[in-house]
Task: structure prediction
Amino acid sequence: MNNTTNNRLLRFILSMILLLASHSLLAQSVVDHRIEVSIDPETGSLTVKDTVTLPDNGNTGFTLHAGLKARILTPGVQLSQTSRANREIPLQGYRVSLPQGVKQFTLEYTGKIKHGFTTTHESTGRSRQRLAGTISSEGVFLDAGVAWYPRFGGSLKTFSLSVDLPDGWLVVSQGSGPVKAQDSKATVWTANLPQDDIYLIAAPFHFYSKQQGNTEAQVFLRQKNPNLADRYLQATSRYLTLYEKLIGPYPYAKFALVENFWETGYGMPSFTLLGSRVIRLPFIIYTSYPHEILHNWWGNGVYVDYAQGNWSEGLTSYLADHLLKEQRGQGMAYRRSALQRYGDFVRDSNDFPLTAFRSRHTSASQSVGYDKALMMFHMLRRKLGDEQFIQGLRRFYRDNQFKQAGYAELRGAFEQVSGSDLRPFFQQWTERNGAPKLELSELKVAAQTGGYRLSGKLRQTQAAAPFELDIPIIIYLADAPPLRMTLPMREPSLDLDFTLPGKPLRLEIDPWLDLFRELHPDEVPPVFSKLFGAEQLLIVLPADARKPLLEGYRQLANQWASGNNNIEIRLDRDLSQLPEDRQIWLMGRENQFLDIFNKLLNNKDYYSSDETISIKHKTFPRSAHSFALAGRSDSGNTIAWLTSDDPASLPGLARKLPHYGKYSYLAFEGARPDNSAKGQWDVSRSPLQRQIHNGPVDRIAPPASLLEALDNLPPPSAEGTESTLQRMKM
Result:
């Protein structure tokens, strides 16, 4: 046999071993479904026959979409209705009565599932469309939320799914497939390992595939595009190789990119469902796409125990979005943006602990569940070191594959590999609200025999109780190597007292932003998220602008203000001065307060004339471009300016700008408009970093990428195989 055949045989053997082990270990919670379904997209209807096998002592009650009429086909089995819930998705409860010793029955049901979109408001200018589930001529989207199959509480599932669709349509689900059924035109998908949902996605797709080791990379597109498909197939191979090396074997037989019929970024077991516009954005293949692939380890390989909080989004963000930036030397910048988003969107009124995070529904909830969580994992990595952190990840994955797990299991895995008691760390960062705020004061330096003495005080100034922190510190010296250390801070203040062998030039506290904390305004540039997350926002329109432009600005302002009671819209001529107690958008080159804004920006980075605008030494003609720039006032608030000479560009700007929150300046071209420049103003100082004496400082490089530690570790695949064999013996 060739290598490919050997690999497939090995995966089959391991899957069967894990299947036997899973049924042994999880016999009390896994329900098996053998589903045959016929779908008519034009009428929104489906007909299903599901042969259900319950575990020993399994729950005999289930729910089904109330629009489906059900009956039992198995002799001797009785079906009765229980309660009905008339919510957004109407659900009908049922109970089956089984003869003694019988665990299997066949259920048949038919009906229509056709729900429309709902819009979720996330923050100023940002909303998201959600579809509970539907069968339509545009496509089919069915999951547990719409109860298209019988749901037995929170039980995990194994299944075979045979789907009959119109000619030209293809179906996607998790697991292995697509396989043509014998003696019919149906397509079959099979998941022999426990799943937390059964997905059914269908449309007139064009199918592309490529074998990657033991895994088949797949792409399902709604229009033929072999070049686009090939880019995603190649990317799938790269990211699967990366994460198998870091964590352990990929848990499924395939990974598929599936083009959706509305704009989504969903990660399901063994596939991702992305919108048509999303998959064609050139940066998505380097950002969102690896994030969705990694979810097959975190969230769809190890399932989330939501009672303990959703840990998977933070860990996936850390090992996808952050890790890929860190590889390019941009890890600190990414952490700064994460901390800044938390500061811009989260306040006492909408904060909550990580144990209460389930999924994102607002920008504030995303900042907690993604940004705070990724910083927690970063601090854990710094606490344990890269090698123990990686070993902890592998242990957690190996011990909890296809099980529900939470922060308790995460803590247990890292404690086992490190030998440390991590209960205080996890309790503090997962069960508390808020963030520490640091202030450096009373800094003194004095010469003494044999060197210098440097002293000062570091305080936590937040209103809440102090956090236990491990403070990273670097002291640069004139005639000696720099000193790098970590000091424990367990009280509201920490006395700093250092005896130094040379003259201190510079003191840096948390130099690489390794701590989850509230940033000082001087540590971050003014960015647009400060306005989109503002408690109070004023939008000032230019009364003297041409009527089409003024109306365009007004429509943009009204769109952002929709659903918000914290946004005020005023004409500039109706204001004598700008208030100092809120964030402000100024609209238009004709705005009478524009001179105030221009004084906020560094003339080296920005220059405006009647014909052009220069940003960071690049000049753009005003006639073909739109611009958004942010500055910070003396009062600490952010004032931003949006200007365009083309009213046709403003609807697109209204839609796009809220998605560029981490930037200080933006330039767009044309009426669509297309982004042509973006970036942040430079940050030149931090109150936690002090220049003590003049002198050249050779800065210490930030720690290496997490992936460099892999050179000192054995490959995880052997560990995964050994663990699987151990499960078989249990």
Remarks:
- Residues 1-28, 718-730 have pLDDT under 50 and may be disordered.
- The domain at 529-679 is CATH 3.30.379 (Chitobiase; domain 2).
- DSSP finds 15 helices and 40 strands in the chain.
